[in-house]
Amino acid sequence: MEKIRLGMMGGGIGAFIGDAHRRGSRISNKYELIGGVFNDVYEAGKEFATQEGIDLKRTYATIDDFIKGELAVPKDKRIEAVSIVTPNFLHFEMAKKCLENGFHVICEKPMTMTINEAETLQKLVKKTGLTFALLHTYTGYPLVRQMRDMIRSGEIGEIQRIDAQYYQGWINPIVHNGNIESTWRLNPKVSGVSSCMGDIGVHAFNLIEYTTGLEVEKVLSDLNKIVKTVNIDLDGTVLLRFNSNAKGVIRSSQVATGEENNLSIAVYGSKLG
Question: How far apart are CA 131 and CA 95, in angstroms?
């Protein structure tokens, strides 16, 4: 089977989520990474391309260079889909330009920084008929799939209660070392209006809707900034009401000392939990 020709925005040397995307594409054996914009510093991007055995002619300095360069390549050799793994504030511009120029998009969450931007992409997808895939990595885990099947088959009965939590503690060392301002995830102009809930709590939210099939209709949130110099949430709790009689809660923190990456979800039904 011919592999999908994949491009990547971001994800160069030292990138965490970019490496995860590449490993996933290799494991699936359905993609071949052809080129992209791997770093905002062009020389660093070329260094990564050389390390990965990627043709430097398909390694670009900017998204505009990428579009121009790839559209000049014969269609049967051109990159087909683009994986966007940059800091959050770049997602919209890159996704929009890719869709406008005929490239399918595989976008790391969050989709965009605002609802208006998301609606713009939605309209583009409908207009072009291209694929836009928004990634939440945990939906691919085998036990998550099994949980989903058990719930949707009715095995646990009517859903009565849902608890989900995602705890990390990585911010505390940054606070103690005084380098918190240099972390892009805590800069609202780069990461968006939320850190804790927007970065990790959203995974718990996604798992709830994915496994149960329920939709959240109302929320009540209590978010805590913790650090005076950071104008963004680092800890929080959200109460949930669904399109059913069930209620739920999401608890999330990036200052839970001792936690590495603790994500869990519990769904309690009238028969099993």
Answer: 11
For residue 179, pLDDT over 90 is answered with no
Q: Which residues fall within 8 angstroms of residue 228, CB to CB, at 6 or more apart?
A: none
Total count of domains within the chain: 2
Q: Provide the residue range defining the domain that includes 87.
A: 4-135
* Alpha carbon 269 to its chain's center: 29
CB 84 within 8 A of CB 10: yes
CA distance 196 to 185: 10
What is the distance between the alpha carbons of residues 21 and 178, in angstroms, rounded to a whole number? 31
> Rounded CA gap, 106 and 13, in Å?
20
Which amino acid is it at 194? S
Helix, coil or strand: residue 17: helix
Residue owning tokens 């800091």: 87
Domain final position from 104, 119, 135: 135
Provide DSSP, 204-251: HHHHHHHHH---EEEEEEEEE--STT--S-SEEEEEEEESSS-EEEEE
| Cβ within 8 Å of residue 85, ≥6 positions away | 8, 9, 10, 11, 15, 17, 18, 21, 108
Is this structure's pTM higher than 0.85? yes
The domain that contains 170 carries what CATH number?
3.30.360.10
Instruction: Identify residue 52 by its one-letter amino acid code.
Output: E
> 3-class SS at 266?
strand
DSSP state of 3: P
- What is the rounded distance in angstroms from the CA atom of residue 67 to the CA atom of residue 118? 21
Q: What pLDDT, in 10s, does the model give residues 67-87? A: 999 999 999 999 999 999 999
Whole-number Å distance between alpha carbons of 50 and 78: 20
Nearest to 30 by CA among 38, 21, 39: 21
